[in-house]
Amino acid sequence: MPAPPLPRNAEEFLSWLDVERGRSPKTLSSYRRDLLAYASFLHDSRDGVTMDAASSADVAAYMAHLRRSHSASSVARALSALRGLYRFEVEEGLGSEDPTVDLPGIGVEDLLPKALSEEETGRLLGAIVGTGPGVLRDRALLELLYATGARVSEAVGLNLGDVAEATESTEVPLIRLFGKGSKERVVPLGSMAKDALAEWLSGSGRALFVPPKWKTRGDAEELFLNIRGGRLSRVGAFGVVKKYATKVGLADRVSPHVLRHSCATHMLAHGADIRVVQELLGHASIATTQRYTKVSSEHLQRAYESAHPRAGTKQRGDHLA
Fold it and tell me: Quick one: 118-299 is in which CATH superfamily?
């Protein structure tokens, strides 16, 4: 017998994530897959028990089942989906107990990519040489990714109207990014990225990729174009980054996300407040930013010793004795 469809409570949970929490279609799709897989497991392996009637033992059995064939990160995501569902049911009065409440969390290895050093970042950006329109676009894209810490989807989703020139009040250009859940944030654009973007938007850059006729009216507003005059895709942007990473021997380490991570890490290393970096990256939680902006213990030790009156030399603390 085929597994039953998701129960009404699960569908209401997904609707709540969409409407009330503004989760992205990608996130909703992942949660739906996780919940369907859970429902199928219960149907096939737990005597057909329904999701709404599942016990802590049923959930624990499902976690054990996943561990045998899935990565820790996949198991953790599945558990997160179930925790969200059952917490939603309790809070909305759709259920009386949360079978996940006593389950331990899933230990997930830190899979964040290692940030490039500033020297490596300089080599990567310095590898983009030439004056053709493709080169101007590639330089603008990589400079923007590193300058703003934007996600690749945010960068390729930019339109011309999302870029604002510097004014007397702002002093630097600003760009508007739309992050997860369509959350909007406005971030500054540094001088190198500003200059690269200006070259791309000149008559020698983007104008040469404009097609004789746009497929749709909205296409004319796209910031980053491919050679056919359409919007540069996420896959296309990934290929651009890999192209120059290969040139400088960093192909196995560099992706658009590495540039995002490097932007945040370098800013923190130079003294940026973590709350500023959180706003720049568009993180809802400061805990997420802390994972992206890990600073070496050596840097933390130097900062501590230079700032705390009792951490450095005896001479510096003499006046406190």
Answer: Intergrase catalytic core (1.10.443.10)
